[in-house]
Write the C-alpha cells for this entry.
Amino acid sequence: MIKPILCAIGLLSSLCACQTQPQIVTQEQLLGTWNVDVVVDTPAIYNSPANIVFSQNGQLSGNNSCNQFFGHYVQQGSRLQIATQGATMKACIDALMAQEAKLMQAISLVKHVDISDGKLNLMSANGDTLLRLTKHTG
C-alpha cells in the first residue's frame, strides 16, 4: 500500500519540476525587438506589425499596430516601468486601430516583467499578463 503511494508522490513531484517557472529578465535579455503575440488576453492580429524595441540607456520604441511610438523604460529586476512620449498619427483599418488603442493602454499599466516558455510577459501591478511577446529573430 505504501509503495504505490510513494510512487504516485514521486511521479507528481517529477511532473511539477518539469513545468517552466517564470524567470527574472536581465537587461541583456530585455534588449532587442519583441513581436507582440497577445494584447490583454487577445491574440494579436495575424501579420500585425506590433512590436516593442528595448534599447540601451532606457530608450523604447516600436509599432503599436498602426503607428510608430517612442519613449523610455526603467527596469529593476522584475519591476518594469514604461513611459511613452509620442507617436505618429496615421489612420489604419479599424481592427488595427482598436488593437493599437488596447496595446497603448496596456503599455501604460506595465509594472512587472518575466520570461516564461521563451515569451516575454509584461504584467500589471497585480500580476495579470497585459502583453505577451516573442523575441524577433530576423
Notes: The helical segments are 2-18, 27-30, 94-109. The first helix runs from residue 2 to 18.
